[in-house]
Write a structure and sequence with these properties.
The protein is 27% helix and 26% strand. The chain is α+β, with helices and mostly antiparallel strands and 226 residues long. The longest helix has 26 residues. Bound molecules: flavin mononucleotide (FMN).
């Protein structure tokens, strides 16, 4: 079932009063259910959704209570664009910054239905595993109740030819992941969603994703929902 949200009242009201054509057509944002499968193609993010950045900052907080309500496809698109969407196609740079522009962070989306990898090119989710692995993406009971858990995994191979001490590399990866997560926190705070950055996960997390060996490490996680 689709809910319709009518936006851009202000632009239309201004246009009516001044007898000028509206600057922007009436925008109807739909709430499409997510259909799980081998891939979830995300719609282009709606860039005018939500509160002002100042209001989002004022609303930002960590949430540990979530309703069973799922995210719509449009909300999922907005969350992943905030985390790691390409905002400059000319160089594939993302909405979040990255030390040396190396982008070691891989974003995994955990749903009740399965685990997906986010591919910024194509703005889509590609399923890596079916099944409910929500609980291994965290160490607290509320994690399994959120609609979505994001896991930020660092791929150390991007630093292979860089003369940077291993300990510093791990800091940089963690700092990159924090930027992704905070973009999402501000997006959720501005769009009526809930989220929390988390530093904890179950020891079997990487195995559940299918990433083993020394190339990868768990950098950060985040619950998102309503
Ligand atoms: C890097 C990082 C890791 C965190 N890990 C967890 C966590 O594992 N579990 C949790 O409940 N909260 C976690 N938090 C949330 C903090 O507890 C929370 O930000 C803090 O209590 C301040 O509350 P506020 O975010 O509502 O302002 C984490 C926050 C950050 C920045």
């Amino acid at each position: 079932m689709k809910q319709l949200l009518i936006l851009c009242f202000a632009a239309l009201a201004t246009a009516c009063c001044s007898n000028q054509p509206p600057q922007e057509a009436e925008v109807v944002q739909t709430a499409t259910p997510v259909v799980h499968g081998a891939e979830i193609t995300l719609p282009a993010p709606y860039l005018k959704a939500g509160l002002t950045i100042g209001e989002a900052l004022a609303n930002r907080r960590s949430w540990r209570e979530y309703s069973p309500e799922k995210l719509s496809l449009e909300e999922l698109s907005g969350v992943l664009y905030a985390a790691a969407g390409i905002n400059r196609p000319e160089n594939d740079h993302l909405t979040a910054p990255s030390a040396l522009a190396l982008y070691p962070i891989r974003v995994y989306a955990f749903f009740e239905e399965g685990i997906y990898r986010y591919e910024a090119k194509g703005h889509k989710l590609v399923r890596v595993k079916e099944g409910n692995f929500m609980a291994v993406s965290g160490a607290q009971p509320f994690v399994a109740t959120a609609a979505l858990n994001l896991v930020y995994v660092a791929d150390l191979s991007v630093y292979a030819d860089k003369p940077i001490p291993a300990e510093h590399v791990r800091y940089l990866c963690g700092q990159d992941a924090a930027g992704y997560a905070e973009n999402v926190n501000l997006y959720t705070a501005g769009t009526g969603l809930r989220s929390i950055t988390r530093g904890s996960a179950a020891p079997e997390l990487l195995q559940a994703i299918g990433l083993e060996g020394e190339q990868y490490f768990f950098a950060l996680a985040q619950s998102v929902g309503k």
